[in-house]
What does this fold into?
Amino acid sequence: MSNDIAATLRRFRSPAVRQSGEMDHLVRQAVFGTPEDRDQARWLIWEIGQHAGVRPASIHELYLARGRGEVRAFTTPAINVRVLAYDSGRAVFRAARRLDVGAVICEIARSEIGYTDQRPAEYVAVMTAAALREGFAGPLFIQGDHVQVNAKKYAADAASELTAIRALIEEELHAGFYNIDVDTSTLVDLSKPNLDEQQRTNYERAAELTAFVRDRQPQDVTVSVGAEIGEVGGKNSDVHELRAFMAGYNRTLQRLGRYAGISKISVQTGTSHGGVVLPDGSMAKVQLDLEALRALSLEARTVYNLGGAVQHGASTLPPDAFGHFPACEAIEIHLATNFQNLVFDHARLPAGLRAELNEWVKAECQDEWKKGDTEQQFVYKSRKKAIGPFKRRLWDLPEDVRGAIGADLERTFAFLFEQLRVADTRAVVDRHVRPPLQSHAAPRAVAVAAPDDLEAGE
It folds into this structure.
């Protein structure tokens, strides 16, 4: 190992250094550096995190403990960090540290990886660096949200689509995603004559992908795998569909081998991703079926020993809605669009940049402009596609602008953590989740590090 790298590792033993501008510089190298500098920075962040107690981990055991009734009711927020990833991540971990939150997930979906220009290895590095920068310590739950089979591509060439899904899962596991949401709910066929036939392709592919994950997960890690019985935005789920899915899933998984199954089940209860925007740009009121969510979560826990049901598409709900989720004992809630909206609509975002971003959307996303949609509806739905092309411009915003946005994000996250009852979950997480130390081989540009370059448990 070069003297410079050894010195860097020694310097980052200090919490003061980890929580300084040196981490900001390192994470920028991990995102925008040359391929050699990028790989070195990502490796350094991983190793620093491993020895500072910020380790990618699986939430599987915590959820199973909830299913056994050993853990009080809470709803884990799974936050899709799309835009201003480092500043957004820092806001997450500032709020989490202040409120003693252990049960929080940072996630990115298959579709988001592309349009936000964040491959799994970069995402893990940025979330790890954000946690280190804010002095957060403990298991770091990073999730592959909606590792989703595209129904049209599957119908045209099932083998190719499944090959793409398996390749993404391998990439995510290698990067440190130890929570994978397998989404084959797109293959549910409601035209079939009975529930088993409707769910069959869904449960068979979900079981096969679970086995694929289990065969490749790191030693001493049981990845948390989630499945889904109803596509978000579609027909509301019910207990009968859950039973049909679980019977078929367990039967298929048993046939494949002695594998641990899923820890949670995603359901549809009336929400849609991003919410429904009206012609004037306001959000339509959501008809949320909380009783269905309560019944599904109860069935998942008491019959199948899962953590519970998972709610998607919820970030644009009104503030008074979030307290209902732990009351219904939903185990997890996925939140994305409102945080993106907070950044794009923030008063401190330069007006010129906002105008340029919107003009890019109108020029580059014309094919997404649906007949009958106003310009406001179109821009609202499509501006997420600008995150990747404008990524560096957003990272390069002045520090005071990023600070103001980050402060408002932190307030939003803190509110959600309290409403979802995950404040003071640090101790229960540490009791059930003990991620092993995993040192990675150094990249080619760096000689193999000596084992005592960082001291465990610092």
The chain has one domain: 3-349+397-432. The longest strand covers residues 138-148.
